[in-house]
Amino acid sequence: MSFVLKPAAGEPTQRTSNPAVVDTVASVIADVRTNGDDAVRKYSQQFDGWSPKSFRLSEDEVRSIVSSIPESTLDDLRFAQRQIRGFAQAQKDSIQDFETETLPGVFLGQRNIPIDASGAYVPGGRYPLTASAHMTVLTAKVAGVERVAATTPPNEGLPPQISVAAMHLAGADEILVLGGVQAIAALALGTETIAPVSILTGPGNAYVAEAKRQLFGEVGIDLFAGPTETLIVADDYADPFTVAVDLLSQAEHGPDSPCVLITTSEAVGRAVLDHIDALLPGLQTNAIAGPAWRDYGQIHVTDTLTEAYALADRFASEHVQILTEEPRQALESMRNYGALFLGEGTCVPYGDKVIGTNHVLPTLGAARYTGGLWVGKFLKTLTYQEVRDPAASAQLGEICGRLSRLEKFEGHARSGDLRAAKFGGADLLWGEIPTRAVTEQ
């Protein structure tokens, strides 16, 4: 019989924003909208103690920062970016422009055109999330985005060197040292010195996430982001120590990060509990991972893997790791996840940092209806139509007229009627075509 071995102690993360956060963000956005650079500088000084002459780093400043990074570290960044670039390029290659003739003389087509400008937010604060630069900047450049403006908060009054290096190597056209709502608002709205972008990407704290939510519509965004989530499906084959280590690898993202194990083995579940209790005291990020596991960690025991996969689909977690004897079964058995990690040789941190897939993924159940950030997010899939055959236009016009009148759209109907009359000789019951407008057949 299925049962819960460890329930979550805390309430589920809410999908609505904290009212105090909503009000603060709205106030900052309104101020930046009205006062531009002055407002940006005011909030940067207030929240980060940061007010340089220019928030945008010069080419010389970028070169100096990159040259200060050990070559071995730069090599690691380049390795990760090669993996991410390669996968993004394969995604782009799978997206095809096409044109098809649906009726004689009727041509319909599709073109994939890059967005003109993208803004990439690379978080600082608790961790310098250099991988976010790979995922947001590099993927946009592979898509063909002409201008990518990347921004990251200052680190104790200085540009964060490793983040700047990652953004530069990823191909950022502009690098700003600017954080928080003021950075998001400046990129979305534009100021006297910062040109606006068309889409905002990248994770951030609750204020950054709320700023993206409020500005969505004026600009595009990648996703509505919540706390990092991980879920593991395991059977008797799974190593409990590996399961415990991998759950805690994601718990350290934040004290509200849900970590869930669904297993067909009560013995595995109990062993995982014991290992986590032993591992947490020695984990440097215990102050974060401990509360996450205490309040949001769960262990569910099911009778069968079929039930386990069904339960995992109901969670629709951001990261789903499959530690079973036949992990590829999950490809056929599951449909709701941000990303799948198959087998013991694979782990979620690979996806976070180095393997090549994008780590900007849906949370809070959004995996039920969307995937994560990918090269296609930076492309506009646009259609076009051309009717070259007069007979086809006449046929379409007659049908368009009838269908439009079913919906009480007389103006639409008359556009169709006109083509039916001009190109097919049909009677125009509501008027006459002026002589100068008649097309010679």
From TrEMBL:
Pfam family, one: Histidinol_dh
GO cellular component: cytosol
Binding site for Zn(2+): Q250, H253, D352, H412
Catalytic residues of the enzyme: E318, H319
Positions contributing to NAD(+) binding: Y121, Q182, N205
List of residues binding substrate: T228, Q250, H253, H319, D352, E407, H412
Matches recorded under Gene3D superfamilies: 1.20.5.1300, Nitrogenase molybdenum iron protein domain
Entry note: cofactor: Binds 1 zinc ion per subunit.
Domain of life: Bacteria
Cofactor(s) listed in the protein's UniProt record: Zn(2+)
Keywords annotated in UniProt: Amino-acid biosynthesis, Histidine biosynthesis, Metal-binding, NAD, Oxidoreductase, Zinc
Keyword match Ribosomal protein: no
Residues forming coiled coils: none
Pathway this chain belongs to: Amino-acid biosynthesis; L-histidine biosynthesis; L-histidine from 5-phospho-alpha-D-ribose 1-diphosphate: step 9/9
PANTHER family xrefs: HISTIDINOL DEHYDROGENASE (PTHR21256:SF14), HISTIDINOL DEHYDROGENASE HDH (PTHR21256)
UniProt family annotation: Belongs to the histidinol dehydrogenase family.
Protein name: Histidinol dehydrogenase
